[in-house]
Design goal:
Number of domains: 2
Largest sheet: 5 strands, parallel
Helix content: 25-40%
Radius of gyration: 18 Å
CATH topology of the largest domain: Oxidized Rhodanese, domain 1
CATH architecture of the largest domain: 3-Layer(aba) Sandwich
Structural class: alpha/beta
Number of strands: 9
CATH superfamily of the largest domain: Rhodanese-like domain
Strand order of the largest sheet: 1-5-4-2-3
Length: 283
Amino acid sequence: MNYTTLITVEQLAAVLDQPDLAVIDCRYVMGDPDGGKRAYIQSHIPGAVYAHLDVDLAAQVEPGKTGRHPLPSVEEFAASCSQWGIDERVQVVAYDDAGGAYASRLWWLLRWVGHEKVAVLDGGFAKWVAEDRPGETGEQPSSAHSFHADVASPLTVDAAFVEAHLSGSECVLIDSRAAERFRGDEEPLDSVAGHIPGAKNLPHKGVLNDSGEFLSQEALRVRFETVLEGRPAEKAVFYCGSGVTACHNILAMQHAGFGGAKLYPGSWSEWITDKNRPVATGD
């Protein structure tokens, strides 16, 4: 097994009994932090363990300093991976019920610490259920492994980097939030509405079709070529509200064959903690 971007329901079902496989349920309900865990306990893919966005895939928020989902420390995340049964031999499959919007955060984090054998289930739990695949209830124990992190290549940029590249001549800054939030028409989660000046808007939900599955690689290539405007993928910096759904765009970009995009993990919710940083509204 060597799936590094997406895996289909059919492909996962065919390898579900393999020993070097870890299936991670990443379901999350905005506004109901325990909703994803309750859904997991009620029914999940056989053998799956649960990863909580707020607890396992993020560090504690430092008010006035960090965004809403700061990155966990490498050591803390490596310990979680060990508990989930992940080591260098293990193929990881992450899924959710939001088109991969939350599972892609785990996908990105694992690549961040040097583990590339990780894929997101295309169509997620909804497609698994729709195809009458088997399920389990309750919490499942995992076999602890020893995970060794290797943060070799930089996949992130910080606020200082973003501020130094606001002109957009060298890098392209891409906001992954919905258009209404980008323009500043509404802001349901953060205290300031708008976007980082110079950013382009590419809502992460646009990588999915009407069935909640990823667009074809060809369609994704066109989508990202349009926003890159001739720049190499390494010059793309993605952000969103808190560094979660931006990973959805990065996953889609990787699946389309454009590797090397960067994440601004703090994203909008960190950017606005400093009142001296500029804010733009409108298109």
